[in-house]
UniProtKB/TrEMBL annotation:
<feature type="domain" description="Diphthamide synthase">
    <location>
        <begin position="3"/>
        <end position="210"/>
    </location>
</feature>
<keyword id="KW-0378">Hydrolase</keyword>
<dbReference type="GO" id="GO:0017178">
    <property type="term" value="F:diphthine-ammonia ligase activity"/>
</dbReference>
<protein>
    <submittedName>
        <fullName>Adenosine nucleotide hydrolase</fullName>
    </submittedName>
</protein>
<dbReference type="InterPro" id="IPR030662">
    <property type="entry name" value="DPH6/MJ0570"/>
</dbReference>
<dbReference type="Pfam" id="PF01902">
    <property type="entry name" value="Diphthami_syn_2"/>
</dbReference>
<dbReference type="InterPro" id="IPR002761">
    <property type="entry name" value="Diphthami_syn_dom"/>
</dbReference>
<dbReference type="InterPro" id="IPR014729">
    <property type="entry name" value="Rossmann-like_a/b/a_fold"/>
</dbReference>
<dbReference type="GO" id="GO:0016787">
    <property type="term" value="F:hydrolase activity"/>
</dbReference>
<dbReference type="GO" id="GO:0017183">
    <property type="term" value="P:protein histidyl modification to diphthamide"/>
</dbReference>
């Protein structure tokens, strides 16, 4: 089954893609929704250059689509139609774990594009998932987080020990509710690790971010 990966650049979309490949699905293209100017991703704030690096390490094309929140759904459905026809797709793979509203939306947009929505991580235990990701070889860095965690966590590689520490603090170790977001630096899907630009950190509107140098 040929599929498009809804690729955030983070650990969940990466592991979902790996799980899909493990059962014989074939990745054909990555899809990322960007902010209005097309320079950074809307979900994780990653520069286009980093997303392109990830795609290059997987030898897959990347479709990066600028969108506002107002036209996000319309553009998402439109690009799914285009990619379905261009790559002979049957499915779209998403990394959501248990936010029902997200799954409902993904089912809706995939149905509109005559694709099957596949969620390989759906309703799995959070700490078990994180540990599986790390054991499987996903190296992922925290690139944004809430102020409960604080700027001190930015730039840290997510380890089993760090995941356990977060859980002990009452923080979802997967960050499923937006507590933090990650960037995959290396994984079994990559030919080699990506090269990260220099960065600084900042806090804005109760959220902490990595700010990448151009």
């Amino acid at each position: 089954m040929n599929f498009v990966s809804s690729w955030s650049g983070g650990k969940d979309s990466c592991y979902a893609m790996m799980k899909a490949v493990d059962v014989g699905f074939v990745p054909k293209v990555l899809l990322n929704m960007m902010n209005e100017n097309g320079k950074i991703s809307r979900s994780h704030g990653l520069p286009l250059a980093i997303l392109k690096q990830q795609a290059h390490k997987m030898q897959l094309p990347l479709e990066a689509v600028p969108a506002t929140w107002g036209d996000y759904e319309e553009k998402f459905i439109g690009i799914l139609h285009y990619l379905k026809n261009s790559f002979d797709l049957e499915a779209a793979v998403f990394g959501d774990i248990d936010l029902q509203s997200h799954k409902d939306w993904e089912d809706k947009v995939c149905e509109a594009a005559s694709l099957k929505a596949v969620l390989p991580l759906w309703q799995q235990d959070r700490i078990m998932l994180v540990n599986e990701m790390i054991t499987s070889g996903i190296e992922t860095m925290i690139v944004s987080c809430n102020i409960q965690m604080g700027e001190g966590y930015l730039g840290k590689i997510l380890t089993k020990e760090l995941a356990a520490e977060l859980e002990e603090k009452g923080i979802d170790p997967c960050g499923e509710n937006g507590e933090f977001h990650t960037l995959v630096v290396n994984c079994p899907l990559f030919s080699e690790a990506i090269v990260l630009p220099k960065y600084a950190t900042t806090t804005h509107n109760d959220y902490c971010f990595v700010v990448w140098e151009a």
